[in-house]
Request: fold
Amino acid sequence: MKKLLIFLLFSVFLIIGCNQESEITSPVDTGSNKQLKLISLPLPSSGFAVESQTFTKWINGDNGGEFYSEYSYQSNSGTVGQFSTLDFNPGAFIGWKNILQTFNTGGAAMEFGPSMQFQADVEYTYEITGVDLSGVNPNTLDFVYIDANGNMYPVQYESVSMNINTGSLKVVDAVIPHFSRYGFVN
Reply:
């Protein structure tokens, strides 16, 4: 009887402890972010649904540094441009890392790698031009972290803006505590 009771108790702990999956770097889901939607980009005129381009640069995290990259493509409505600057403050991470920035046409977002958290601020400025913003509400425009499950969480930044006439979205000095996916939502 004692063995059966221990086995049942162990089973209950195992089931309770293993039923929730989460990312280590994900904040607690408050449920308030469910109505946000990633802003779409125009489809490439090449006919492919999604095109992407990855840029890399070696950065010494002890010294800090800057990583600028840009990517553009042709859509049926014109040129879409994406411009990105990552500023690593000294001490952001230890040693040299090959930093990755991946632009793609699947939404107004950028993906970074390798997976890591930072010990000092990393600030990110990101601008996209040539986007149809006619359905975007400037009062609910935001820049967020997007976890692996598609949940979205606010990011601290200096400013976020849009210009309907030029079709541009811009976030200035977004503080990113770890590498993942970040983007514009409405």
Notes: The helical segments are 2-18. The chain is about 10% helix and 40% strand. The chain has a mean pLDDT of 84. The chain has one domain: 40-185.
